[in-house]
Records
---
Amino acid sequence: MTYLAAIREDLQPFPVSSDMITRKCEKHGLNVIDQAADEATILLVEIELMSQLISLQSVSEGGVSKTFNKDSALLLLKRLCTEAGVDASQYVTGGSVTFREDLS
């Protein structure tokens, strides 16, 4: 299985484009058509992809629009971070409240 296919399968059902996968793989020195062998780097690529995708919450490609459940995407991102031994707080931010009086 190629890196492209492995990453796409791991991130199902979330809509990640081939171009996004290719770009992230290239940044990590992977060629998407090579046979997947470096699982640690695959996890890092998947974490980066999911963190980028969560900010979108919907994707439009080729005239087709897809939306997804952000909470499910966050759960997958946290699981990937745990598997990779990465601090999830670098990629997942919690909600925050700012009181009006603190703004002055």
---
Amino acid sequence: MHICKKLFYDINFEPDAVQPCCNVHGIRVPRFPFSGGKLDMASYAAHIVHVVDTLQDSASLVCKGCPELEEVDIGENARVNINFHTVSINMHRHQCNCRCVYCDLWRHDGSSYSILPALQSLWEQHVLYPQCSFSWGGGEPSILKEFEETSRWILENGYFQYVHTNALRHSPTVERLLREGRGAVNVSLDSASPDVYRAVKGINDFTRVVEHVRCYAAAACVPSLVHVKYIIFEKNNSLKEIARFLELCASLNVGVVQYSLNFKDLNSVGAQPKSLLGAAFFRRRAAELGLATEPFFIPPAALQAIEHMERAHFSDVTS
């Protein structure tokens, strides 16, 4: 039968619903209405059973075209067993203090709900895997009044956290996570200069963000807990800017550099050839600088194109 394992192992809190993923593929995903408080797991499990049945209907549009759907033989008498390995926190998706041009989320209504009661209800109902990982997305988590308290609750219950932040604000709790090795941070810097930062992020705070990245890298017990990302698209796909970004990350002792593409492009016309070339150069130059490199939600076809360009254009480049 057609199944996505995220239905049983992952949960994502959105502003008005709970769903099994962040829907990076721009398709119709199953949604369970939710607006805060405790999450009733009996009702949610019944919802998942219905979703599984729906996925077997070839005419259904739910999850249609998703590359993560797979054919699995689970037997006729199999029971739904929900045990969350990941919890994604995105109920503040429309709350942000940045104005990135590749993102429209900040243009929408920013209302949300308190997430701590929902997380505590998952813990009380014993549906959290012992090594469950919590991911803060958004929006921008550091501007939430409850962020520090909720992050401490997750930490003190022994779970790992991955915090996606623009680093406009410095978080004492994030610094503690890094110091204790109980979390990692991901900053989308997307630039190496104030001018390009302003063109991409819509604000004029490059210097402050770089200083906060420096503080996080200095606090981390191991460099691999600090990830800095570059979303490559028309406004920043200059090879010169990418090279300067990688050199900056090396100077800050960043552990991992990530390259990504504009989701808007990927879900419509596809990434521009110059952006794919920029990603190919990013990979090669990062390797020359000794930086660990990761792709961030790049579809297989685009990743193959990037790898082909790296071999074709940069195989003989030396540092």
---
Amino acid sequence: MVRVKTSQEVFTEDEVSKLTGICREHLRGLARNKHLGTLSRLAESVDPETWLFTRSDLLIVNRLQARCEH
């Protein structure tokens, strides 16, 4: 079960990775294959290509991908 604040609407890929236990590489692959999340190209972010996920994307990711074992 993933618990998040009800006020939080958008999650970065780092937050989703920590919440679900899925590594960033698998998360990015799942996002591309299943058309989840949006690719943000914000100039002020550390990584210029950061994936952003909604609450519904987070629930889908949690159901489709098991925690990474590596």
---
Amino acid sequence: MTRHCPPPRPSRVGPLCVCAGLLMVGLATAADAPASATTPPLVPPAPAAPAAPLTWLTPLLDASRTAARNSLEVVDADLSRTSAQLSARVAAALWNPRLSLSPSYGQSRSQSNSVVDGPGIIRSQSGSVFLGVGKSFATGTSLSLSAGSSGSRSDGAGVISDEFYSSSVSLAISQALLRGGSRAINLSGISDAADAEQDALDQFDSVLEGQFSDLASRWLALAQSEASLRQLRENVRLASENLRQFEERLRIGLSRELDVLSLRRGVADQEVQLSKAERLYAADLRQFKLYWPGLELPDRAALLNVTTPTIPPQPSFAVSRQGRAMLRSLAAAARQVASARNNAYDDLSIDTALSKYGSDGDLGGSWSEFDNRETFDLRVGLSYSHTFGTEANRIAHHQAQLALDQTRLRARIGERDWHARGLELRDGFDDALARVGEQERLAAAQRAELVLATAQVEAGLVTTRDLVDAQQRVSDAMLALYQANLDVLRADLLLRLHENRLLDLLP
């Protein structure tokens, strides 16, 4: 049964009015974001509205650029990137010119069994030095240039001169006409290494983006936790003030004991919620310090008042990181088809060699013989070989063609799924914006209900339990509004990651 109290005297009614006023100030008219436990009560953030392009991530990226690049994951990706760059250099080095040097020396002593030499020992010495330079070209051309001299000395009676020298210069060119004659095929190793290097670069960017994304997610989570803590602390303070005022009313006979007991339970409920939130916040801080030791985060209070981020039109799949990787896969599959076709060819090449020789009893004289245009050696020929039973090569070519067709199908699937994910994230962003407006309307309705509940408690029409419930609904609405505003930023972050736009904010 509702207890009807006599009209309260001003000196006794004043404390309850003050309490109601404090309650409405604390739960219904906030505008500041959380900062510390001693700052004024939390208030709802300003309504999201179209504004300038997104800048909310820039302070965080500026503060964490060095820490992110020094993280274990990014260092690991950087090592892989360096290894891929070295592999590309190795692939290109296979086409470097080759230099060869072949010095030799020999000595022999043999028993003479010749009528000319007579009995005795014949002593002979010989030596040679040859220097050659060769290079293979991507066109299937091989070129080599070599020059050298050889000399001999003998005390045999059958030789014209005790010392004799021969010198030569040779130029040889070979051109593959079938197998190995394609420039694109010959350079496929360099192309594969370049693709691997680009894959490693993209992986590095992806890992770096992932680190920034992890940090931004933790930043937003801490901001939400701090907002919750501020709101819960204010709830405890207002509930305790309510309890104190109703205890005073009970003492003077203006309230019921059941009302006071309900308020005490409300204070306990608020304190339990606050304790849970504090433990969760402490756990989040420990996790943050483990993954980001020593990093000082920018101010988080401003996140609750960030204007609506600007979302550009959806980019083309071909310019995305995933699209570029798919294009490289298609190019690699096409090279495999061409390589398999090349391996099915027979070996056919044309070989040309031109040589000049000179001989004399003096080393310089052997080189001077090169002036004689009448002496040279020119050879031109074809080289052909065929392997019977080329079924393996034909099957390999067919398999490569199947792999290319599969890669094309997977590219279409990947492009479709990428666009689907993009549409999902953009719809999620629009939904997050809509939830902000919905939560603002809901918070306004809950505040209006709290005003009515406060008045009805004053008039003794409802119990204090109804007032506590109304206060809790306002608190929940405010916390949901903070989360809705931060969810807009989370949706923007996910969309930036999907479209590879997060690193665009780095200077």
